[in-house]
Amino acid sequence: ARKAGIHVVMITGDHSGTAQAIARSIGLPHAADDVLTGDKLEMMSDAELGQAVKKISIFARVNPEHKIQLVRAFQANGEVVAMTGDGVNDAPAIKAADIGVALGSGTDVAKETSDMVLLNDSFSTIVAAVEEGRRIYQNVKKVTLYLFAGSFTEVALIVGSIIFGLPLPLLPAQILWMNIVEETLPTMALAFDRGDEENMTDPPRPKNTSIFDKQMKLIIALLITISNALLFGLFIYFWQTTGDIVLVRTLMFVGVGIDAFMYIYSLRSFRRPLWRMNPFSNHALTSAVGFGWILLIGAVYFPPFQTLLRTKAIGIREWGIMIAFGLLSVIIFEGVKWAFVRKNTV
What is the Cα 308 distance to its own chain's centre? Predict the structure, then answer.
């Protein structure tokens, strides 16, 4: 818990000597300066208590009112507070905390008031829940960025073509095919990806942190200005040189699909470069992307799909250009990750 930046304190109605003995056995600071009793707490102002909770590890001889005071003192310092307890007298503090945690062996009142119940009464379960929460948050960021980037690419192509008075680069059926058939399974697989090993060494996030942090905003901005501009430039180039709108739409359809299938692997970690990850460790993602490639190729070469999506067969040269475009997005992602990791380690 300490490595994860969690400040663990003991709040008990027992004698301070008993609390110190238990703290010594579990590794909490237990010197005399680390203990604050309820009678001393009552004589403190809110400001003094706010300073005290930053350094005190043991609160002994406290009553239910003191527990609520402590929860509010931590919250006033901007902390996200998880309060554990098992008795009726713990229920008010459990309710006041951001996350109330009741022991499975506790009273029904404590359980009904809490947000989470520990069936095994184990502190390690709380730590495991924090780790799982951080993994889920990280995966939400991945999926959000993946869907946002893909959708914005489609919007940018459509809006750009309207502004410049050009034919639509993608048809509605092609957009639906990409969003529903090709991207759904990779998105679901990404949502259950493993978290970074370093997740439990990061400090807690501030309470009101936006999911769109500086790193995500920079990635989105670069994709908008570089990747999407290049794709729209390819659309104009192929339209002017070939005059074949079916071919050009096929190329845009392939380009958007390849782009999504390639940079999704960079998205698996916001701190570790692609070449330091095992791209096949997420078997569900590997299968989903592989199936997506099959559908993409089938959409280009399988006659019934050609009729449905109004595509046509393309050659190796065109595939090479679109794969090179997909690699550009990977380079953008990796460049931003490198810049942020370097900034945080220097």
Answer: 36
> Which H, E and C letters describe the chain, residue by residue?
CCCCCCCCCEECCCCHHHHHHHHHHHCCCCCHHHEEEHHHHHCCCHHHHHHHCCCCCEEECCCHHHHHHHHHHHHHCCCCCEEEECCHHHHHHHHHCCEEEEECCCCHHHHHHCCEEECCCCHHHHHHHHHHHHHHHHHHHHHHHHHHHHHHHHHHHHHHHHHCCCCCCCCHHHHHHHHHHHCHHHHHHHHCCCCCHHHHHCCCCCCCCCCCCHHHHHHHHHHHHHHHHHHHHHHHHHHHHHCCHHHHHHHHHHHHHHHHHHHHHHCCCCCCCHHHCCCCCCHHHHHHHHHHHHHHHHHHHCHHHHHHHCCCCCCHHHHHHHHHHHHHHHHHHHHHHHHHHHHHHC
- pLDDT for the residue numbered 346: 45
Contacts of 258 (CB under 8 A, 6+ apart): 296, 322, 323, 325, 326
Q: For residue 228, give every residue at least 6 positions away whose Cβ sits within 8 Å of its Cβ, in sequence order, or none.
A: 152, 153, 156, 157
pLDDT tens, residue by residue, 18-41: 999 999 999 999 898 899 999 999
CA distance 310 to 173: 9
* Cβ contacts of 71 within 8 Å, gap of 6 or more: 81, 83, 93, 96, 97
Q: Which tokens sit at 327? A: 């690699």
**How crowded is the C-beta side of 178, counted as CA atoms within 13 Å?**
22
The CA-atom distances, in angstroms, between 159 and each of 31, 167, 173, 250, 334 are: 66, 11, 17, 18, 28
**Cβ atoms of residues 11 and 22 within 8 Å:** no
The pLDDT of residue 273 is above 50? yes
Q: Could you report the per-residue pLDDT of 292-313, keeping only the tens digit for each? A: 999 999 999 999 999 999 999 9
Q: List, for residues 60-81, the tens digit of each pLDDT value.
A: 999 999 999 999 999 999 899 9
Using CA atoms, how far apart are residues 177 and 118, in angstroms rounded to an integer?
44
